[in-house]
Design brief:
It is a single chain. This protein is mainly α. It has one domain (6-51, 63-99). It has helices at 6-18, 24-31, 35-52, 65-99. The longest helix has 35 residues, at 65-99. The protein starts with 5 loop residues before the first helix and ends with a helix.
Length: 101
């Protein structure tokens, strides 16, 4: 039974969440983990996320609301892309280290 670092688990869950059209099976295969393992990590993260969830602040109805919405969407997409990049980078380092055995 393999033991994965907590950071790797969190990154795998973040990768799954950052790709709306992806399946658990495809993400798990890409990372080299069992499908059920990834599914369990997602469930565990959802449990901890539900207890820490807070309501977003009310949206102001200003003249530049559309601009603000576009800016927020762009920033969110940038964060998602940076997370994906970091996850793939960490996975590559992890598997490169595993290949040395």
């Amino acid at each position: 039974m393999k033991h994965y670092p907590a950071e790797f688990k969190a990154d795998a869950v973040a990768l799954y969440r950052s790709r709306p059209g992806a399946t658990v099976k495809s993400i798990a295969a890409g990372l080299g983990v069992n499908t059920e393992t990834l599914r369990n990590w997602i469930r565990a993260a959802d449990g901890s996320r539900a207890s820490a969830r807070s309501e977003p602040p009310a949206v102001e109805h200003a003249a530049g609301e559309n601009v603000q919405a576009e800016l927020a969407a762009a920033r969110k997409r940038i964060r998602e892309l940076e997370e994906e990049r970091d996850i793939l980078s960490k996975a590559a380092r992890y598997f490169a280290g595993e290949a040395r055995w």
